[in-house]
Batch of 3 targets.
Target 1
Amino acid sequence: KGWEEAWTEYVNDWEPNAYYKNYIPLSTLNDQIIVLTSEEQKKRPYPDDVFISCYFNFRSEDSYPNPINYEDFETESIFHFTSDFYPCTVLSRGDLNDYIVKLKNEFVILNFPRKAIMFTNTEYSSDQFVPDMFRHEMEIP
């Protein structure tokens, strides 16, 4: 079967499975202005297939107090090193751009900006792992 024929058949036969019932794309979560605190999440939990990550560039030459004041250490010059994202818990929220977070490594960070908080898929839960998705080899003439 050619790709187009297989795609048409897939679209005509497709029905949403249980996965899609409560599916929220990461982009939707990441576009939200407010991140819920751990207390708020008890009443309004995020989906099971995501967790919250916080960006903080720990530099090996620095010594860190606990708690850390984000403004004292982070230059915000680079937000693209995924190794600098750590699973975290949002403890409290001040204004719309001011959080207190606790990293998985037990550091508490004050004055943490919203732009440094990102929702991340748990292992094997991104769109590419959704069951019953369209899969077909590409044919190159």
Note: DSSP finds four helices and six strands in the chain.
Target 2
Amino acid sequence: AIGTWKEVGERIRSSQSASFGSAIATARRSFRSCRLCPFTIDGRRVIVGSPEHNCTVNNATATSCGMATVYQFDEADYQWKQIGSSIEGSSVDERLGTEVTMSPDSEFVAVGSPFAKEGRGSVHLYRIVQNHTETP
């Protein structure tokens, strides 16, 4: 063997989501669990899909609406930290996060919802927006 694998930072875990990690993407290309592929260009940002996550929609629980969350590795703390808010589906059985991908610069993400729109599916595109104050 050439070497051994060492985990980078603490494991990214979700206490609120079923199927967390069933879809993972980095800035280079997306992959599903158990497939071999390269990580990000710098290895510091990842998006994780959780298609069986339950959401609250109109004050009721929507089963399997899905969720996607972006994390960035903080070398100073040696931990993965969530970037922005989690992206949640908006309807029962939408399964947002079944497929996820990220642009090469990690600024944009695309999240698939294969069962949205009464089973026709949809793709949601997002851009990270930093908190700032605009001046006229």
Note: Strands lie at 23-26, 30-32, 45-50, 55-57, 60-62, 67-74, 79-88, 99-102, 108-113, 122-127.
Target 3
Amino acid sequence: MASMSRWTGARSASVGSVLFSSYPLSIFVGKKNSQIFFLLLAILFVVDLSTSVIDMTHVGNIQSEYRLARFTVKELRNRDTPANRHNIETVGLLFNGFPIQGLQLTPDSDGEQNSILLVAENPVVFNGWFFVTSLLDTALDPVRFI
């Protein structure tokens, strides 16, 4: 019987008495205003979550066109060898898994010559890249690059 009067008191308690009661959480949650607040908060959370999921599905559809791409070797398999001694034979760009034709490969004039610049005559869209190394010396294969 004592617990029943406690819940009856919690329902009829004023908002100011929530902080000074021995059961502040149950009084707060039992109020109609706080229940409406939590309902609106849950709706906002669901809307925000659903829009972020929708945005993530569209990220792959954002495509920009580029005329230049740079491939820079930072480190080789043999860490004692300078990065400009790499054995890359070719570098290319891919669109949906297929190589883009018509790219010119030029060594970039960054001073160290460890970059390769890919130049397209017309802007291209790409979503992947590849590089091919010679099989002569695997110690000269790039293992860290940007």
Note: The CA atoms of residues 25 and 83 lie 63 Å apart.
